[in-house]
Amino acid sequence: MDTSDNEIRILSKERLQSILTKVQALDHYKHYINELISNFEKNNENFDEVYKAVVPQLLKLKLKTKSVLKAIDFLIDVAVKSENELTEYILDIHSDLTYASEPLIRQRSVYIIMRILNSMPDNYTLTEDIYKKINKSLVERLQDTQSNVRTYAVLALKRFETSQLVNCLLDPRAQVVVATLQSIAINSETIIPIIRLVGDSRSIVREYAYQTIKNIPIEHITHTSLCYIFIHALTEERSTVKKQFEELVKYWIETIGFEEYFEKYFPLDKIPQLPPQEGESGTDMERYILLSKKIVEEIIRITQSPAGVTLDVSPTLVILRCYVLISHCEGDYPDGQEVLNCINGKSELEQIALMKLYSKCNGGKCNILEVVRGHSQVVVEEAFRVLIKMEPNDHFGIIVNEMHNITEDDQPLFLKGYYKSCIEVNYILPSEFLEYHLRQTFKNLQSPNEEKRMFTMEFVGLTVLVNKEKAQQFIPVLIAGLSKDTTPVRLVALKGLTDYYLLSGINVPETLRDIYNDALLSLSEDLEALIIVLQGVIRLYLNDRLHISEESSELCLAKTMMSLFIRSIPETQLRSLLFTFFLCYSQSHFEDSKKLYELCLDEAGPELEKITEVFIPMLSQYDKEINTTIMEMCMHRLMSWIKAEDNYSDEMIINLTSVFYKLDYTNNTTDIRDISIQRLKSIQSERNSNEVNVAIKSLIEAFEELNN
């Protein structure tokens, strides 16, 4: 039926049943939605009679097939997309049905209400009467005998922020508690009940409790509650729950910082009343110190894991808190010299912590570099940080003097650690000093030893960051390393270049864009190296240092990355990186993005359908005619490819037809339908393949269904 004119078929029970049957097999049914909306507007009394007669019969079907669920989804779409009196009518009807005697009708009605409410925009408002009615019916369903009904009621009440939800945190069914955690508002009445759930006996509840706690501003969590969280987390055995706790801690530390976190939320002058633990004894202070040590060790473990927090300083900084607590209990900080005397013979971790403690001590200063001379590079680098903190104006002179005690061959390694510390505090070193020591290392660039070349390239990268204004003369060294050396050396050079352009505020020149592109192409078979290069390119692009849109019409870098995306394996880090780039690039450069999509069509890879599903709706926000343009692109290629059987397989043809199902034909349906049907019928018999003909026949039927 054509709904483009003003003649609307009067809705009957049979017609509504027919519509609910047909939509079960369709991806696009906007014409049916329009038909129901028009019927409601023209004769809502008739609509009411038909709806009440047909829909409850659908809801009571005990089948849980996709077809029944698809019909229910259709009813939800009718309500969501109308955004008028029909929306409130459907909410009103199903609000009444939540009192039905049959559990399945109650469950599905609450589900429909939940889906409608959660699909509406945040600024959508209901009339006061319907708002009160829905709220009342949903609150009553919180006491329903069926746990599924209670669960959907909780999720539906998310918009209402009702105080009764806090009682659902005590529900005997885990699924209801989890739904409550997903829906409950964070306020003074709900914070404590939420935190208590980290001690629940059900692992899924504990898991979601940690997720919800992440939404609570940490300043609203009391000192005692923080200790309660850690007491249970430190004894947690379930890995999935432990992971959520670790994500919570990483979020806190990233947001606040190590020292601020412990100083503010684990203060020295407030000892909480800790719940008794089996086998524990001692004073409150002793138990608090013991807990704090365990917390410190746990946070160190979390932040040093492969997926840990990215920090500007070593994560071992946090161990200092143990020493601070102990020192507070015993009195004042010890003398600085006494602290340094303890360094020898200690573990690397203890040496770093003692140096941190030394930086806080009062008393005479001494040369910390003498104390750590001959120790590991990690310890020496920590000594540089302490030195710069304690001698902000004189540390360079101390370094120059210390160089006399170091052999010429060992000086680059010594300076490498010092440069890192200077970069952290944005301290600029004299260019003459940098040039002298850099030229001393250039001989290693010709060394057959790959490790020496890698070290030298890293040293060059650090040098340009310590004095960015004078760095231009050394950038060609990094570019040469990225272009001509072995893969490990190229990656070190890439990091140096990426860091330089990110921190200097200078845009990547066009010649270097070509070198980045060559690196992507030449390393495409080395997945690990390819990911590192892509991370650098994407970081530069997202920070507005790499302007891909200024490239020539070949879209060099963008085309290369899109080609890699099409061929990447789903659910891999490579796919994720490229997908992120693809989304950002499409939003920023609309016209170039259309060219990229045309390249995807020419590739006709297996990801074409997925790219269309994400890409085209995005472009539609900027150009309402984009679907027509894309359809014409696809139709043109389909007509050419289907005749070239040797070059284009059946799979590629079928893959292309699937794109048509992803397009939105709204406001253009008549023209698109007629033209497309005519073209498709003319090429249907060109390929002697049953699978291809079935795919094209199905596509023709889909076009014929438009406006019917």
TrEMBL record:
Q: Which GO terms describe its cellular component?
A: condensed chromosome; condensin complex
Q: Which residues form the signal peptide?
A: none
Q: What Gene3D superfamilies does the database record attribute to this sequence?
A: Leucine-rich Repeat Variant (1.25.10.10)
- Enumerate the UniProt keywords alphabetically: Cell cycle, Cell division, Chromosome, DNA condensation, Mitosis
User: Which family is this sequence assigned to?
Assistant: Belongs to the CND3 (condensin subunit 3) family.
Which subcellular locations apply to this protein?
Answer: Chromosome
Domain spans labelled Nuclear condensin complex subunit 3 C-terminal: 446-698
Name of the protein described by the UniProt record: HEAT repeat domain containing protein
Q: Which GO terms describe its biological process?
A: cell division; mitotic chromosome condensation
